[in-house]
Amino acid sequence: xxxxxxxxxxxxSRRILDTLRLVKDDSGTTNVLSFAALDSVAVRDGHxxxxxxxxxxxxxxxxxxxxxxxxAIAQLPGIDRxxxxxxxxxxxxxxxxxxxxxxxxxxxxxANNPGTPETRPDGKLLPQxxxxxxxxxxxxxxxxxxxxxxxxxxxxxxxxxxxxLDADIYGPSLPRMLGQSAKPFVEDGKLIPxxxxxxxxxxxxxxxxxxxxxxxxxxMVMGALSQFLGDVAWPELDVLVIDMPPGTGDAQLTLAQKxxxxxxxxxxxxxxIALLDxxxxxxxxEKMNVPVLGVVENMSYFCCPNCNxxxxxxxxxxxxxxxxxxxxxxxxxxxxxADIRASGDAGAPIILSAPDSEAAGAYTALARAVADSLRLTxxxxxxx
Length: 384
Hints:
Elements: H1 10-22, E1 36-44, E2 47-54, H2 56-62, H3 66-74, E3 81-87, E4 103-104, E5 129-136, H4 144-157, E6 162-166, H5 174-178, E7 185-187, E8 190-191, E9 194-196, E10 199-203, H6 218-230, E11 237-243, H7 250-258, E12 261-268, H8 272-287, E13 292-297, E14 302-303, E15 310-311, H9 318-326, E16 330-333, H10 338-346, H11 350-353, H12 358-374
Parallel strand pairs: 2-3, 5-11, 5-12, 6-10, 6-11, 12-13, 13-16
Antiparallel strand pairs: 1-2, 4-7, 7-8, 9-10, 14-15
């Protein structure tokens, strides 16, 4: 295997499915797939990251089988290590809709929803979402999307019902970073979000070829964003994380006007030139009366994987100082690590694929800080 192997490989998924069928309980009557369904697979440098969709009730039945399944997958040619993550969404084993119940969505065939989108009492969309938050930056290249993906996965890992919207029409990265290439379907006039790693997700990247250039004028972009809000069957969510496009333009204004944003998170790197743009982002949300939940310093420092020596390649502490000057919380430092980049390329968020890593610890702390700031708590299950 090479580091370029990603999920979505049908042959890889098939052989892991075959292996999971062989991992049985002590009675020998049921296997892993009796309680779960394969959600996604990513293989990088011999490490298989496997996500299984399982109901909350069946999660306890999978736990005793997980070590056996990981050991069995690690015996496959080209794989020397395996990590299985359990995600709770659609009931595993549920039958697919009958032909005609769903149809693929195409850009030249809009959802054509005959109904009126649900709105809150204030006229804003998505009343079924408890909190909508924006992850933004004043410029590109600061790791905003990577931060947003791992934040969303971290919130889901805390037990929150989490969705994610990729609002970057020109440069969608969510499908690659989540290892998903599935096309959304339309049911009852609504787009059905793609499910990946415990998240409900929508991106223009699911609807167009990865290499296709989106040469659209502003009104078309605004129309697509409006459709992703009003014509998508978002379920009841505790939090929807929006990966905002870089800059301070029409997309940001449209989302602020159509949604009741609970807050925004600004991602920056430590150097002065990035902080200039971060200040513009802070000013934009202030003008739109959107609370800023805090600032994150990405690529804060680099630790050599060989000697563990810490080097501050882009300076250090600039984002913290900016947060203090602006009177907003500082949400933490994310290190510059090769594994973060590689996990994004492989379609397996590092907070899930390597939960004990330094990077996962930083993203987990960020997710907890955001959940605490929003006063979000996981919904209680019937057995709790």
